[in-house]
Amino acid sequence: MRRPLLVAFALVAAAVVGVPPAAAVDGGPQVAFYDSSLGLWRMEGIGDFYYGIPSDQPMLCDWNGDGTETVGLYRPTTGFLHLRQQNNYGFADVSIYFGIPEDRPVCGDWNGDGIDTVGVYRSSNRTFYLRNSNVTGIAEQQFTFGDGNGTPIAGDWNGDGKDTVGLWKQGNAYYELSNGNTSAIGPHAFLGNPGDPVVVADFDQNGRDTLGVYRTTNGRLYLSGLGEDGGTPREYSVGLHVGIPVGGVTGGTPASPVGGAGGGGGGTVPPGAISVFPGSSIQDAINAASDGSTLYIRSGTHRMQRFSPKSGQTIIGEPGAVLNGSKVLSGWSQDGGQWWVGGQSQQGAQVGVCENASSRCRYPEELFINNARLEHVNSRSAVGPGKWFFDYGADRIYIGDNPSGKTVETSVTEGAVYGNAPNVTITGLIVEKYANPAQHAAIDNRRHNGDGGADNWVISGNEVRWNHGVGIKVGKNARVENNNIHHNGQLGVGAVGSGAVFSGNEIAYNGQLSFLLDWERGGSKFADTTNIQLLNNYVHHNWGPGLWADDNAKDMVFANNTIKNNTKAGIYFEISYDALIRDNYIEGNGFGFTPWLWGGGIVISSSSGVEIRGNTVVNNADGIGAVEQDRFETAKYGPHIIQNLYVHGNTVTMSDGLTGVAQDVGSTAVFTSRNNRFENNTYNLSGSGNWFEWDNRQMSFDAWRGYGLN
Asked: Is 160 among the domain residues?
């Protein structure tokens, strides 16, 4: 089986190291190429198709054991891998978080089961981490190898059905392979010219992989066997191509060239697409286009644009396309240590509850100096460095920083994308600095908050940042995939209605403004929804809960997410019903709100029918907790109580806090008659002490087990 792996790409020519190559042979192996500047794959006999965003690192392996290698991507900014089961345009079939950002990926069949799985090489500690299944989890194999330099490669060099890793030193045209996936060095030799990128595949289909290099100056492929001298390379013409060679092509689903990608747009106008350049109205272009058409938003800043797509339309952002909801301020006057500018008549709807009376979190207007958000204070006298004040009565903005030589922007536009036409796709855009009120999103498939939202939107591969309210909010059956949603003022994401899937997103540093935590602030919130799935997301450093369901949410799945360092609970399921919380990695959450069990990695509040299994919960303010209180909100599917809670098969590491169940309703039923169970969990505790809560008291592990809990 072929094992093509990613390589760094450089246009370097030098003398051939080692023996001269044999004469060129045309009509031989074909090589797949990935143009990382466009997110564009080129495969002979299959066609060109977009899949990826600039800077993604490509892979090509057999992810499901069907004998066909298909594309995959590693996103170094997030540490996520996005794998496809077909070689064509589409969205990731598998998205997992493995390793840490800036690891370098590799793929291969490490255990001989016929399925290729992921691995990473971490240069900082010179270690390979190999996983035997394509789901989020810890490495089954890890070992140090090499000096931390080089591109990781892998192949089945001896035909035994198992792949072995190695490193390609492109600058030296030198490879060194592990001896059976251990720290020992096996075969090693020079091959090709310094600067040649490497290609690995079973090009002659003999059951053994072959090392090769691609010569960027002449479009030729040089293949070699293993050995100290590298053997005598066989030479083939494969043509000059722009991009990274990623291995041979033996099959796949043919695909015509199409625009867009799950994770970003391309740099070439997709066939039939309508280009919209900065300075032109996106809404006018939409209005002039038919249902089902494709619009290509060209690179550059599209300032203060707000648009509502038609049914079936696809909106693709060229790399570098920015939707910016602010205007640039100029014409400043100085008054002592403050600067002001007049003529500011914008004022949006005030929504939300702030932590204190001095906060202006409810006002949607924001101000940025060189992309840094300033604090909006409620009086001119409070203005100083890093702070600003909007005098709405006088139409003036005051700042405490000298604006000379700086870009000063104030958010004006209510939101970027809205509307309830069905079957819309939004991909590849940067969406920033919109004055969307709290509980409204910069990308929002509703016309207003009372709208149930459109059917079947796909929002993929966008970066949504520095907006006032919510980053992305969707309605029925939407797919929100592979977006980077960060530094928004109130929430990262949210949903209404039923059937939305949030997969492969990075949701980070949201809740930047001082909204009251118990009102609505953090990484996400899902209220009065059904059948929401939260899968394979990386949720970290949000001010508030990481993933939060509230107020009669029902039938939710939280699976394979990595949730770290949020100030409240990692997963918070509140006055809701019927959830599966499984196989998540949850670490370092809850330290901004620690009383009782509220700082848990997982917290269940007055909710029934929750199964919690297979999670790894590490050093949060509390472990896994459930709290029952009198809640007077309307109960839609039954009483708001802790009932049928099943916590099993989790690994809980605690250096602080508690795991268990607590109540303040004056009844012990939550402990005695509600079918609430903790079974077959593993606890790693820092010393002796009372780590558990049950039966209205804190207790030791032995006492906990005495109640039949473990």
From this structure: yes
Domain boundary among 208, 233, 248: 248
Q: What pLDDT, on the 0 to 100 scale, is given for residue 226?
A: 65
- Reported as a single tens digit per residue, the pLDDT across 217-233 is 777 788 876 644 445 67
80 close to 506: Cβ distance less than 8 angstroms: yes
Is 518 a member of any domain?
A: yes
pLDDT tens, 315-355? 999 988 999 999 999 999 999 999 999 999 999 999 999 99
* Residue 286 three-state SS: helix
395 shares its domain with 455:
no
CA-to-CA distance for 509 and 523, rounded, in angstroms?
Answer: 8
Number of domains making up the chain: 4
Residues contacting residue 66 through CB under 8 Å, at least 6 positions apart: none
Could you tell me the CATH number of the domain that includes residue 108? 2.120.10
Q: What is the pTM of this model?
A: 0.67
Mean pLDDT of the chain: 87
Are 351 and 293 in the same domain?
no
Quick one: 430 and 407 in the same domain? no
**pLDDT band, very low/low/confident/very high, at 15 (cuts 50, 70, 90):** very low
Q: Is 377 a member of any domain?
A: yes
- Of 636, 476, 429, give the one whose Cα is nearest residue 553: 636
DSSP 553-575: -EEEEEES-EEE--SS-SEEEES
Backbone region of residue 197 per phi and psi (left: phi > 0; alpha: psi in -120 to 50; beta: other values): beta
Confidence of residue 48 (pLDDT cuts 50, 70, 90): confident
What phi, psi does 638 have (nearest 5°)? 130, 175
Q: Measuring CA to CA, which residue among 604, 617, 621, 600 is closest to residue 677?
A: 604
DSSP H stretches of helix in 281-326: 282-288
Which residue range(s) make up the domain with 395?
326-411
Instruction: Give 241: exposed, middle or buried? Use CB within 10 Å, 0-12, 13-18, 19+.
Output: middle
Last residue in a domain, options 293, 320, 347: 320
Does 480 map to a domain? yes
